[in-house]
Amino acid sequence: MGQFRFLTGGESHGKGLVAIVEGMVADLSLEEVYINEELKRRQQGYGRGPRMKIEQDKAEILAGVRYGLTTGSPIGLFITNRDWQNWQEQLSISPIETEIEPVTCPRPGHADLAGVIKYGLKDIRPIMERASARETAARVAVGAVARRFLEELGIAVHSHTVAIGPHHWEREEAGLINWQKVEASPVRCAHVKLEKAMMAVIDEAKANGDTLGGIFEVIATGVPIGLGSHVSWDRRLDGKIAQAIMSINAVKGVEIGAGFNLADLKGSQGPDVIEPNPRSKVKDLPWRRVTNRAGGIEGGISNGEDILVRAAVKPIATLTSPLPSIDLGSGEVAKAHYERSDICVVPAAGVIAEAMLAIVLADACLEKFGGDNLKETLANCGNYLRNIS
Ligand SMILES: Cc1cc2nc3c(=O)[nH]c(=O)nc-3n(C[C@H](O)[C@H](O)[C@H](O)COP(=O)(O)O)c2cc1C
């Protein structure tokens, strides 16, 4: 990360999650209610576990905002874990007298085994606590700061579910997405028939004690041409986006634009040809693209089209009848540790991916347009856009 960066801290059942966000311009309006709306969106989704009912996340802004406007100083955010009261002994920060039974049976599909070995611990608990996707609540709060900034630049970020289990919505069929329908859908899918089918397979998986993965898509609109760069590997916007999305728990594949489908096309079919733009079109530029197979990025640089990112989410690895494992204490065959769990997290993962994409784009905009105050950034951006139209 460059201009706009953040760190999170906190355990799944600890006192709370903390984030420090640095590099945001001054004079951006930012309020807790705005962040909390995003946190609420992350907690929804058909197939989430009972924990979502306990949490109802709320972020507290601790620093970097005065009278509803950012000051340019680091922004401190805190989200309380409402379940903390039940975990105070297990996750006590000070040494305690009571003996707490360690977790010794690693769950396949989790950081448990590799983590406990890497950090030389006897108890898997600290690994489970930090590797948990609970941490993504903090990322969504940070993403809300980024999103607020992007709004000022006319950039919007949305997500929707395109597959759960075998039910899949191809990009070509999807066309323009109705985002209001997506927000109202329990699985974040605007295709009514598919939505019902997705909910039915989630019910079926739940009844069978199983879980499901799927695919979400994140779309950024209004992205100016020229974010990121072709000049060095670590400046490429596509590379930054792939890393940010792949860093989301349970994401196992990321594609930009037509992605893996491009492998099946010929060179004559792949690229989005450039043609003159009749000046009446929405974007007042002398060229236009009829297709967007590149997903809005060519050579690591945004090309002015919508940024399209899809990601594959694996089925949750915690099952009600736990998978085989071993007890690391005795070396004997054992069932993996069980902790209450979600059935399908694809809709929530999409919301988290919105936050991650917003963070990458906010950083790229700050790198391109600079500025320490929102007015300065907007003026720089305005000048740049005037010069290319
Ligand atoms: C929103 C969200 C919620 C999740 N909830 C669970 C859960 O309840 N149980 C579980 O076993 N894994 C859950 N996961 C997935 C694990 O966090 C993830 O699979 C695990 O940390 C291992 O990381 P990896 O799959 O990226 O390798 C969730 C992921 C996300 C994005």
Rounded to an integer, what's the Rg over CA atoms? 22 Å
Mean of residue pLDDT? Answer: 94
Bound heterogens, unique: flavin mononucleotide
Beta fraction of the residues?
A: 15-25%
Q: Could you tell me how far the N terminus lies from the C terminus, measured between alpha carbons in angstroms?
A: 30 Å
Adjacency order of strands in the biggest sheet: 8-7-9-15-10
Order of helices and strands: EEHHEEEEHHHEEHHHEHEEEEEEEEHH
Helix content range:
25-40%
**Number of H- or I-type helical stretches:** 11
Give a brief rundown of this model.
The protein has 389 residues and is α+β, with helices and mostly antiparallel strands.
Report on this model:
- By secondary structure, this protein is α+β, with helices and mostly antiparallel strands.
- The protein contains 11 helices and 17 strands.
- The strands form 6 sheets. A 5-stranded antiparallel beta sheet has the order 8-7-9-15-10. It has a 4-stranded antiparallel beta sheet with strand order 1-2-6-3.
- A hairpin with a 2-residue loop joins strand 7 and strand 8 (167-168).
- The longest helix has 24 residues, at 346-369.
- It is globular.
- The mean pLDDT is 94.
- Flavin mononucleotide binds next to helix 10.
Feature tags:
11 helices; four-stranded antiparallel beta sheet; five-stranded antiparallel beta sheet; binds flavin mononucleotide; alpha+beta; 32% helix; 389 residues; globular; 19% strand
Topology:
Layout: E1 5-9, E2 16-22, H1 32-43, H2 51-55, E3 59-63, E4 65-66, E5 69-70, E6 75-80, H3 112-118, H4 125-131, H5 136-152, E7 156-164, E8 167-168, H6 171-174, H7 179-184, H8 192-207, E9 214-221, H9 237-246, E10 251-256, E11 274-276, E12 287-289, E13 297-298, E14 301-302, E15 307-313, E16 324-326, E17 333-335, H10 346-369, H11 374-388
Antiparallel strand pairs: 1-2, 2-6, 3-6, 4-5, 7-8, 7-9, 9-15, 10-15, 11-12, 13-14, 16-17
Bound molecules: flavin mononucleotide.
